[in-house]
Amino acid sequence: MTPIPSGLAEPPTVEQGVAALIEDVKHKVHSSYESCEDRVRRSPGKAILVAAAAGYCLHRLPVRSLLVTQVRLMAALAPPALFAFGAAKLCEFLQNEARR
User: Which of 51, 53, 71, 74 is nearest to 63 (CA)?
Assistant: First the structure.
């Protein structure tokens, strides 16, 4: 392995990557919320009609079975995701140990 020259920055850690992803998601959700709020302020009648239509659709859909399916999917995908995260952390740790 070749050592990293001292002038170059260290590669980002897994935590930094996850934190950057979470901040990006927070920013996008906040901007989407603000744009939705602006649309409701501009045309409240249309917003009420859309909310009533969404409520009717949610009432007619089998929401419970959809939520159960989502929970089962998350339960099935959580162990591989945690394993991948652990493997990435182990790789990062071994690379840091090799640099020393």
Answer: 71
Q: What's the pLDDT score for residue 8?
A: 59
Instruction: Report, in angstroms and rounded to the nearest whole number, the Rg of the chain calculated over CA atoms.
Output: 23
Rounded distance, CA 10 to CA 6, Å? Answer: 9
Mean pLDDT of the chain, nearest integer: 87
Cβ-count burial 56-83 (b if 16+ within 10 Å, e if not): eeeeeeeeeeeeeeeeeeeeeeeeeeee
CB within 8 Å of 10: residues ≥ 6 apart: 4
Long-range contacts at 92-96 (CB < 8 A, ≥ 24 apart): 92/13, 92/14
Question: Do the beta carbons of residue 96 and residue 15 sit within 8 Å?
Answer: no
- The helix (run of H) or strand (run of E) holding residue 100 is none
Q: How many helices (H) and strands (E) would you count in the chain?
A: 3, 0
pTM: 0.52
Residue written as tokens 């590669």?
Answer: 11
